[in-house]
Amino acid sequence: MPFTVGLDLGQSADYSALSVVQTTAGPEKALQLRHLERYPLRTPYPDIAEKVAALMRDPRLSPDEYDPSRRRHFQKAPELVVDNTGVGVAVTDLLDKLGLNFVPVTITGGDAAHRSGRAWRIPKRDLVAALEVPFHTGSLKVAEGLDLWPALKGELLTFRRKINLKTAHDSYEHWREADHDDLVLATALACWQATRRRGQNKLRIIR
What we know:
- It is built from 5 helices and 13 strands.
- It is α/β, with parallel strands linked by helices.
- The C terminus is likely disordered.
């Protein structure tokens, strides 16, 4: 049951947040929200990078599994997806220096996703849909005791879809400028990657 970690990076007036989603076993392959974390305002980016690196190396995110067909134990490595928009570039450089593998995502207002090497450019509506769909269908399960779950639900409910009648494009914005979207985007990044990579999880052989 692999884990996917989403990291949304805010500027000085915005929170940065992290979300951990697990893909559950079984034919339905539901998603389970396991952990939410919001860093205090003005937390130095090197501190955030160090905390993320420590989390990614936590053995609880790399559970051992046995493949009877190959008679070997495997570790399913967690995947990290990082908001590379704006200030995210500085943090992804720090994560690179810490030796982490991750998928950098630039959030756009366009129509289609584009990939260049390991990096992606993803329309914001696609990311939000990756969270909205399992949220409304009930396929996103939430672990008990998540203190920030009410805040995440509140953020999601403050989003609205605005249709441009001339272009038929839609975008997401807040009801109020003061609202935050860090938890929504961190969880959306994790859900997007978990859904995209479902059935294609990386395996590390334990020799």
